Amino acid sequence: MALVTSRDSTSTFTHRSKNFDVFLSFKGEDTRLGFTSHLYNALCQQGIHTFINNNLLMGEQISTEFFKTIESSMISIIVFSENYAFSTQCLDELVKIIECKKNDQLVRPVFYDVDPSEIRNQKGKFGEALAKHEENFKDAERVQRWRDALYEVANISGWHYKHNCTEFEFIQGIVEEVSNSKLYRMPLFVAKYPVGINSRVEAIELLLDIESNDVRMVGIYGLGGVGKTTITKAIYNRIFYLFDGRSFLENIREKSETNEGIIQLQETLLFDILGNKNLKVGNISRGINMINESLCGKRVLIILDGVDDLDQIEKLLGRCDWFASGSRIIITTRDKHLLATFGNGLSTYEVKGLNEHEAFELFNQYAFKRNEPKEDYLELANQVIRNAKGLPLALTIMGADLYGRKKPEWKNSLYKYEKFPNKDIQKILKISYEGLDETERDIFLDIACFFNGQYMDYVVDILETCDLYPVSGIPKLIDKCLLTIDQYNKLSMHDLLQQMGREIVRQESPRMPRKRSRLWFYKDGLDLLIENKGSDKIQGIMLCSPKPMKVQLKEQFLKMKNLRLLIIRNLHSSGHLEYLPNELRFLDWPGYPFSSLPTNFCPKKLVALNMSGSRLEKKFKQIFSSETLKYVNFSWCKYIRKLPDLSKAPNIKELDLRYCTNLVEVHDSVGHLEKLEVWELSNCTKLRILPSCLMMKSLASLTLSGCSSLKKFPDISQEMKCLGKLALHSTGICEFPSSFGNLIGLKSLLLGNHLVHLPSSIYKLQHIERLSLYGDVIFPKDLENDIQPPCNSYEDFPKYVFPSLNYLSLNFFKIRSEIDFILTSFCPFSLESLYITDSNVVTLPKFFGKFERLHMLFIERCNELQEIPRLPQSIIKVLTSNCHSLNSESSSKLFLQFGEILGLPPNISCLGGRSDISMDPQLSRRISQGDDEYEIILPGHDIPNWINHQSVGKSISFWIGPEFPTFGLCLAFGMDDDYSDYCYRVDITINGSRRTFKRGILFKNSFDHLWFFCRPQSSLQKQFQDLKLGYRNQVELSCEIFFPPFAPRKSTPFVKRMGVHVECRCSPPPPPPLNSSIFHDNYEEVQPRGRRISKRIVHQRLRLSHLRGPGFILRRLLCPTRSTSRQLLLKARKLSSNNRKRKRALVARSCMCLCGAQASCQCPKEVCSTYSAGLASVCSMNLDSPTRDIRTA
Q1: Looking at the predicted structure, is the pLDDT value of residue 929 above 90?
Q2: Hey, how many other C-beta atoms are within 10 angstroms of the C-beta on 144?
């Protein structure tokens, strides 16, 4: 297993740091020059780090440092002698040792010429000593602690010297046991450079849940060399002291190859936990029973490292049903399936490779002995790190190999690594490969050489005809961590594993490529074809030249009778190809340079055929005589005019004919391919004839977009439940048959060109989720009740609704009444996205604000758009660009609505505006805690006044408090010429730490628009998770504009203005007591105390201001007295018709609103959050604050 994975100190992985192995406690006058001295020397000679106190005089007080020495020792040995108890120092040591025993320190007594019962019963000299202490000390509790400690230690198993052997032999017995105990309690070495371990250890500790008292088993799996053993050692060090017994069994796979190895593992397990070296199990069966019976009463930690067979676990742990409560079992393996046999009784954790930063640090530690590489080695170091793909084993070995070498040696070594993998790395990785059977090895090698990155189903279909049983074989490779499947169902193999597989093939014949089973290096394949040196050993060829090559091909494949897989790219030839092997299962030859296939080529086992962009135009009918054929790609074949009869290839699953610009007719048999799932015909501009009828029960996707000559859509004679996607836009079809309604499974429909009339059966398509319409598409109206979907109970709810619709796109609509009909008739309240472009829309429906799931609203180049009535509260992104009829008033209203939805402008009422939207607490919580980025783009260039920080230019700065707020950023761009697109990036810097806040593209004609982005609190918190905020934190946002590579640099766009609205995180004031009036003009004077101000001063200068909330007036005054340091003092009075004169105390204190906003900010800074003298304290604001109205006061 590999060393490692974040830069942490090694001590992180042990429960505590120990300075000494053994601490000796003894009575100096009795044994210092005799027994204790001999014991100390014997321990030291054995390499046991022992502390002995030769300096402390009798009767001297024990220092704190001395106590720390006891605490930092692994084992304490107390040498009891005749006069031990007469020493108060010894007794205090003993009490401390007993305390440490509770924290897992091992304590062992030596009874030297003393009987344990004398100590236990506190008789004889020990009783005499304690009686004397009671007379001399008034502290009875201290003496009792001594008595308790003596009693407890006397009951601990130790060593009793009875003079039945020599003192030397007695001491040797002690040393041997201490040595074994030291090893037993010794932490494991984790890694020279422990990078990235902590986060993984903590994740596994959550699965172990040490606090719970049940039995927990955790399986850790991952690729060889990824660090499973290293991580497990770190876990062991952190928790082993919590258990009655513990054992770490390493390299189980290797040690279990013989019965003797299994027996040795069993004996090691018993010794680790019981500490008895003399236990012999005899045979495996007896060993299993001994383990079960001996350990079943102990709370144990057992780690089985490197398991590759369930039998190994059973021979060590039996049926795994005997563990005592609180026990923890950890198993590491490369085989995920092995862990699955335990079912729900075992939690699993996959160890993945290091991330980019961790890999960079680990490699640099080995290659340069520091965190950063040498400056001129940076690119070379990055090349190694890229090749290692986060595998700690590779980073460690290659880093150590390159350490101290010069740059030419580095370059030469890197070239060698790519061509000839490092043997030490290969040795570790190859272990999993060697555990495969013959067919699984062939699958692994085929994927390593040809199919890495391909879709799993595609590869399975191809290899199935090769008799390799991939349905069971590929999952086996995945379980052994030799393969992974991504979210798109693509197979992925680590680069080093792929390199290992290819090296295995290369070693079949290192000097003669023609004798290898597979060729993947294009030069080997090219030489083979040029020199015509093929052989029947070759099963697969991949010849992908980096640049076009011309080779005369004729009969080169004649010698390769067993060729299964052929992949060719960038190869040009002339004349006629005379032979291709009939054993081919996979023929992938884009740009096939010949007009026909060899006449004798009749592949009966062909599964996948890719000849996109080929010159093929005739004599290819024979390839469709294979029942195994499933994938056909003739896209971009400009010479094909007619697709032949495919009835003899009934198992075709995918048929790609895109951009066959001369294709006119598709044979009628294609319409009856029951296994066909994907049929691509887009941009076949001359296509006129399709099958008259479609009876394709498996068809899931049909694309006819861009078939401009196609006038007629086929009849759908029966219901097609599988067809989910149909693309028909930009065709010549103007009307559809009534059988169109049989496409009942349709979820995505794209249609339209100019004027298209739909049949009434369109309303049967009740599962449509995405509807994209181009041009004027006319829907039937005034339908009979029996074909209408049920009406919703909401008033004004759509009548002819598609109830599952969540995405609607209207493009190039000119008939306004049709737009209104679609918007008011088809959109359920569950609509999530609405796109309208280049259309004559004037307004949106009045119930638009009720769309409770709408996230996206994009309206572009709609010059007649005048109004958007109300934005739904669920909205996330709004884009209304180049809608010139949307005036500034309408834009401002939308801006205000968007801000209110985000809960950003808390001061609308103070600005003369009025908000009639009540903020839903759940929505507010969703915004602040979610990860969505909110965005609105509207015509205009004046930043709204409610945005509480504004500046001219491309940067702005302000202050925030100790919590991350929600940020809203508004940008106004300027440019003299808006002919092109540009890139922009906004950076945010908090206390000098810089991150990217937003990046994107400024599209052409969008420079007279306002761009507003909002980042919720949780998003910022995650981005700055490594930054701890102080009480006041400076924030700066800056915007940079970049030229795209294709843009001519004639003029420079710039940032006109920036605005930032910051949600104030200051605490709101608490409510006043319900039964009280607040602040009348008559009250008793309060004398100054510290920053408190007397009532006389409060009366000197009053200025009227308003406090948000009903029934309150806020008064404030400026007090330039020396004692208050120019504080703004506030007075609050509740307006009441019953204005009774009641005396209340008033206390004024200073505070500062941390958002530091300009005058428009109405954060709750005026009222303090405490009460004094029964009612309220009133806060002031420091005049150093940037609040403008206070400065001018």
Answers
A1: no
A2: 12
pTM for this prediction: 0.71
Specify whether the CB–CB gap between 419 and 25 falls below 8 A: no
Catalytic residues: 93
- What contacts 899, CB < 8 A, 6 or more positions away? 905, 944, 946, 968, 1061
DSSP 716: E
Cross-strand bridge partners of residue 934: 1014
Question: Which string of b and e fits 378-402 if b means at least 16 CB within 10 Å?
Answer: eebbeebbebbbbbbbbbbbbbebb
In terms of Cα–Cα distance, which of 275, 41, 74 is closest to 172? 41
* Cβ–Cβ under 8 Å, residues 518 and 538: yes
The model's pLDDT over 999-1013, given as tens digits with 9 standing for 90+, comes to 877 766 666 788 888
Both tokens of 996, joined, read 């990217």
Token pair for 1092: 């408190």
User: In this structure, are residues 1053 and 997 in contact, taking their beta carbons and an 8 Å threshold?
Assistant: no
Strand partners for 654: 631, 678
For the chain, give the number of residues: 1193
The answer to whether the beta carbons of residues 1085 and 1095 sit under 8 Å apart is: yes
Q: Positive or negative CA dihedral for 474, 476, 482, 487?
A: positive
Q: How far, in Å, are 681, 932, 949, 992, 1038 from residue 1035 at the CA level?
A: 54, 21, 12, 8, 10
**For 791, left (φ over 0), alpha (ψ -120 to 50), or beta?**
beta
Residues 6+ apart with CB under 8 A from 730: 705, 706, 707, 708, 753, 774
For residues 690-729, b (16+ Cβ closer than 10 Å) or e, as one string? bbeebbbeebbbbbbbbbbebebbbbbeeebeebbbbbbb
Q: Answer yes or no: are the C-beta atoms of 991 and 1034 closer than 8 Å.
A: yes
Question: What 3-state DSSP class applies to 567?
Answer: strand
Give the DSSP H or E segment for 132.
helix 124-136
Percentage of the chain exceeding pLDDT 70: 81
If one counts every other C-beta atom within 10 angstroms of the C-beta of residue 1082, the result is 9
Least confident among 204-213, 669-678, 920-929, 1056-1065: 920-929
CA count, 13 A, side-chain hemisphere, 209: 11
pLDDT of residue 342: 84
Termini Cα distance of the chain: 72
Q: How far does Cα 802 stand from its chain's mean position?
A: 37
> Is residue 170 packed enough to be buried (19+ CB in 10 Å), middle (13-18) or exposed (0-12)?
buried
Confidence of residue 793 (pLDDT cuts 50, 70, 90): very low
